[in-house]
């Protein structure tokens, strides 16, 4: 039968892609109906019988017998004399079913059929992959490095599906070689031109949250809840945890004896510094814990503006701010409050930002990086010490000190 070659080409895809029988029949019927519409203008009067087990397919056209010379629609009507060539005893008004051979569709239509069939199979396959990975969004996934590009690493999973890990979704210290297994979360899945685009991320805070679920049994079992995670990938992270069981110390359970439990997570994230803190609905206490390792003296909260004024001893200020301002920035993200740090006894002090008309912003930022954000905090330090601790020239520092001194001499 001349349709076998076409069905055979379909069977190759069927065996490779594990398409179920119902889907197989539906795709074949859709492809052939499209071809019939192009050839005859309508497919309403055609029956398509698919037998995928045998690799067989039949097409039958149904027409009504009319008197010779009265055929108005040759697709739906057949003349009496033509019908009697099929069966001599046909009469006017009866239905005639006639098998349509593939050769009747024409060589060009048959080639188009095959291409359409291949396209539909791929489209079906891509839809299945899209749905599969859409259900995995936000979950940890592992794939192998296949190709390393400048802006992304291309990964392949065990089924040969392509997963993209863009440069901006990587941890800055990440370094991969071909064949390496890489863990991350499936961050997004989109269909672009009927092809699924699967994006993995190792920088997303959810990745850290899911690592806690994988590595810490109490989190996996629901005894400990991860309330919120904030990260500066590869640098620092803060994780707020809570437990409804008073017998469980959530921080201790997550960190483990001498950091044994969290060590694997830290290593996975390129030695990212992770602070685990006890969540509380007491916002003063929550902010105080979030600024760890700094010890807070007192806190003033403004609920309307979502700002917190935190008073610390001078030696605690740099701890609260942290290297590059990471600690205070993450504490603000964790608690949802803009945090302003003040030193004890600095009520008459002046914020460096107040001198922005005389001192350039990047210079003020250099002082902020080492925990100096008021005029007196800068004046308390020796010039040589400031030269060592900042990236500023001695002349620039002297100019700043002269400006600040004028403020207090007045």
UniProtKB/TrEMBL annotation:
Name under which the protein is recorded: Transcription termination/antitermination protein NusA
Residues spanning the membrane: none
Main location per the UniProt record: cytoplasm
Species lineage: Bacteria, Pseudomonadati, Bacteroidota, Flavobacteriia, Flavobacteriales
NCBIfam families in alphabetical order: NusA
Stored PROSITE patterns: KH_TYPE_1 (PS50084)
Domain K Homology: 233-306, 307-388
Cellular localisation: Cytoplasm
HAMAP family cross-referenced by the UniProt entry: NusA_B
Organism of this sequence: Aequorivita ciconiae
PANTHER family: TRANSCRIPTION TERMINATION FACTOR NUSA, TRANSCRIPTION TERMINATION_ANTITERMINATION PROTEIN NUSA
Gene that encodes it: nusA
GO molecular function: DNA-binding transcription factor activity; RNA binding
């Amino acid at each position: 039968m001349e349709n076998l070659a076409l069905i055979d080409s379909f069977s190759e895809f069927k065996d490779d892609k594990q398409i179920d029988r119902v889907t197989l029949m539906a795709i074949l019927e859709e492809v052939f109906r499209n071809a019939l519409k192009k050839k005859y203008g309508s497919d309403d009067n055609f029956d398509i019988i698919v037998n995928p087990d045998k690799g067989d397919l039949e097409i039958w056209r149904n027409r009504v017998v009319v008197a010779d010379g009265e055929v108005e629609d040759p697709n739906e009507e057949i003349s009496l004399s033509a019908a009697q060539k099929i069966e001599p005893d046909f009469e006017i008004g009866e239905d005639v079913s006639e098998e349509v051979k593939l050769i009747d569709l024409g060589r060009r239509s048959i080639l188009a059929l095959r291409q359409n069939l291949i396209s539909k199979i791929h489209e079906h396959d891509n839809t299945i992959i899209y749905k599969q990975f859409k259900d995995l969004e936000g979950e940890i996934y592992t794939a192998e490095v296949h190709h390393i590009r400048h802006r992304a690493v291309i990964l392949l999973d065990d089924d040969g599906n392509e997963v993209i890990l863009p440069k901006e979704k990587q941890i800055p210290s990440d370094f991969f070689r071909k064949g390496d297994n890489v863990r991350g979360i499936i961050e997004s899945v989109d269909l672009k031109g009927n092809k699924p685009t699967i994006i993995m991320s190792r920088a997303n805070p959810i990745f850290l949250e899911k690592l806690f679920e994988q590595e810490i049994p109490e989190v996996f079992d629901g005894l400990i809840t991860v309330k919120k995670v904030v990260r500066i990938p590869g640098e620092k992270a803060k994780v707020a945890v809570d437990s409804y069981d008073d017998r469980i110390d959530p921080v201790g359970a997550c960190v483990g004896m001498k950091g044994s439990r969290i060590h694997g997570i830290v290593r996975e994230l390129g030695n990212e510094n992770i602070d685990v803190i006890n969540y509380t609905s007491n916002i003063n206490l929550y902010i105080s814990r979030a600024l760890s390792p700094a010890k807070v003296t007192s806190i003033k909260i403004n609920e309307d503006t979502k700002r917190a004024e935190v008073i610390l001893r001078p030696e605690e200020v740099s701890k609260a701010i942290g290297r590059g301002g990471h600690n205070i920035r993450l504490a603000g993200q964790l608690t949802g409050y803009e945090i302003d740090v003040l030193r004890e006894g600095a009520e008459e002090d002046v914020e460096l930002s107040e001198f922005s008309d005389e001192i350039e912003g990047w210079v003020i930022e250099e002082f902020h990086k080492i925990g100096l954000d008021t005029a007196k905090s800068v004046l308390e330090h020796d010039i040589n010490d400031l030269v060592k601790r900042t990236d500023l020239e001695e002349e620039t520092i002297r100019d700043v000190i002269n400006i600040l001194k004028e403020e207090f001499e007045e």
